[in-house]
Structures are given as structure tokens and as C-alpha cells.
Specification:
60% helix, 5 helices, Four Helix Bundle (Hemerythrin (Met), subunit A), mainly alpha, single chain, two-stranded antiparallel sheet
Length: 165
């Protein structure tokens, strides 16, 4: 699963690296995140959620998980004011730290679990699989935003030949 997390992070990094600063500020709809906000969310989740929670399950099983509010973190994080390039660099640096840390763990017990307040028993392996899946959900979100930008910029031409979204 560590290799999957490395791969999904690479997909995100490659995708974000190709988004222009101008396009990174486009919101697909009122109240929806722009690409910069997605990138900022990814940085936050890397540090405050996935890496931290895997550590809690594996190394601090009795400790309470700190509360998270991803929506508030994006709303209050000032990500729109930062460049997409700086957010991408921070994401890549934090992902490298995560991968190095994960690979340094001596024989982790991925079946070790902790009770999540909404989900119930939740294993470190569940977190690992969710980490890779989370990356891909946000890659899909970024692609959808970019698809909307292309579609909106096409007139007087149309994107029908591409197929249905």
C-alpha cells in the first residue's frame, strides 16, 4: 500500500504541475473548491490526517485523535492566496516525508485498529487504503475542474467529440 500511496501522490503531483496559476483559481461552482484549495487540502490531510492518524493507530493506540474539520481548514487556510506551485511543492515535500516515515516503520501491524467515532473499528491498513483512494478522488476532482474550464472556453466550438463526461 505504501507503493500505491507513492503512485497516487505522483499522479496528483503530475496533474497539479500542469495547472496554470490562472486556472488554479477557477471555482467550478459557487462554494466549490478551486484547484489551489484542493492542493491546500491535500497538504493539510497529508500532515494532520493520514500520516498523523496512522501514527496514532500504530504508535499511540490509547491517545485520542485530534478533531479535524477539513472544510474549515480550506475555508480559513488562505490557500487561494498562495500559488499553486508553492502548494504543490509543499505537498510533494510532505508526501516524501510520509513515504520515508512509513518505510522506516519496523514491521508495522497494519491490522492494528482504533475505534473511529463514526466508523467503528478502523485498522491502520484501512487508513493506508483510504489514503491512496483519497488521492485519486481529488485527482478526479481536479480533472473535473479542468474539464469544465476546457468546456467553458470552447465556444463557439463544442467538446461533444470527446465523449460524455
Amino acid at each position: 500500500m505504501i507503493d500505491r500511496i507513492e503512485g497516487s501522490g505522483g499522479i496528483l503531483g503530475d496533474l497539479l504541475a500542469r495547472v496554470s496559476e490562472e486556472d488554479s483559481l477557477v471555482r467550478p461552482a459557487e462554494g466549490k473548491w478551486c484547484v489551489r484549495e484542493v492542493a491546500g487540502h491535500l497538504v493539510s490531510e497529508e500532515v494532520e490526517d493520514f500520516r498523523a492518524r496512522v501514527e496514532f493507530v500504530l504508535l499511540r493506540p490509547g491517545a485520542e485523535w485530534p478533531p479535524l474539520d477539513p472544510e474549515a481548514r480550506v475555508r480559513d487556510g488562505g490557500f487561494r492566496e498562495r500559488s499553486c506551485a508553492s502548494l504543490l511543492a509543499e505537498f510533494r515535500a510532505e508526501r516524501a516525508r510520509s513515504l520515508a516515515w512509513l518505510r522506516s516503520l519496523p514491521a508495522p501491524d497494519w491490522a492494528k485498529s482504533k475505534v473511529h467515532p463514526r466508523i467503528g473499528a478502523f485498522a491502520a491498513g484501512d487508513l493506508m487504503a483510504s489514503w491512496a483512494a483519497h488521492d485519486l478522488l481529488h485527482a478526479r476532482q481536479v480533472v473535473k475542474i479542468l474539464h469544465g474550464i476546457v468546456d467553458a472556453g470552447a465556444p463557439p466550438f463544442v467538446t461533444l467529440y470527446a465523449g460524455e463526461w
